[in-house]
Amino acid sequence: MRYPHNQESMTTKEQHMRFTRRDTHALALIRRLAAVSATAILTAVIISGCSAATPDSPKSTPENASLNGQRLGISVCCAVPQIDTIANGITDNVKKNRTGLTATVVNGQSSTQKAKTDVQTFLAQDFDAIWTTLISGQGYDSLAREAADRGIPWVNFSGSAVTGATLNIVIPEEQLGYVLGTATAKWMADHDLKGASIGATIDSTGANVARTEGFIAGVKATLPKVTVFKVGNAASTSTAGQSIGANLLQAHPDIKIFFGWTADDAVGLLSAAKQAGYSNPDDFLVVSPEANDQIFKLIGSKSLLGLGASLGYPFGVIAGENLLEKALHGKTIPTTAIMRPTVVTAKNVELVQKQEANPSDYPDRIENQLAFVDQVLKFGDAPTEQIEAAKP
């Protein structure tokens, strides 16, 4: 069966990402959702030697004062390893900072309604601060207004913004694709493949379109005449990616680069390239916008899958939690931050993995992981400012 191929003829910003289905990191993170029990996934209590706060204590305390007795409520979307990394990163950092803050994590069990109810519970129980990592930031406006009116700082670390949150830390889908596009254009030039065509999958649901469009824009910034064939794919599985790749190569044998809009797509495209006879990583390139353990391994083995991107969640989580504690101390914090993607190659993959496994050992990465921008995001907005990639 032939898939419809749309020859690329777009402008860079024809479409902006609308996160109505996926969240954060949870965008990519939420593909393998697993149901969990109705009980809270994790509760971490940090005890300090400071005296407990009284019921009349203000929501913000003088900087360097204890946060003993104050409570942070954390609502995460679902039970997948990346989300566990975020939750554990928050509680580990709370413990490391030794302020006396108590962190409670509850899991939304992949239900947007339960996640919303969890936040309502935090407010009803007079928690002092809120952290959310959500499937979607839609419908939280009134809760964010209530938190703001009561002086409760709220950090949202998700794919989509929560309108009115104190700080939104979001994935820059277009920028993520763009940095991979510029790296791909360099690879094409270095390998004398400037005239090659590109095959790319794109999210046919519309939720993550900007990831592929950003990639194409990044390539075309250097190689404006390159031909890109896009194929819509909502399934985002390695099986679907393999089928799409095989059809693309059959119809367009001059394709030498594949871009998958998810890691699963990229793995399937890799299989298609190998079945078509490609084995030399100097002759063919597969690009993944997600760098999970499988992608790290493929890049490290110098396979055809030679480019990936990591959003450095461990560093961003620590930076975000530190800012939340700063807000609890009565300090003003930025309203919008973007996760800086890191381009992962065979040359740096081991270093990236080492750093992400021990984030506290790399304070410079923590300090530089977030790009702060003036744009105040509401739900449905996508960050438009181009940012520099993070360097390991």
Automatic annotation (TrEMBL):
Q: Name one GO molecular function term.
A: carbohydrate binding
The record places domain Periplasmic binding protein at 85-304
Q: Which UniProt keywords apply?
A: Signal
Q: What InterPro entries has UniProt attached to this entry? A: Peripla_BP_I, SBP_2_dom
Q: Which Pfam families match?
A: Peripla_BP_4 (PF13407)
Q: Where in the cell is it found?
A: Cell envelope
Q: Which Gene3D superfamilies match?
A: 3.40.50.2300
What protein name is recorded for this chain? Sugar ABC transporter substrate-binding protein
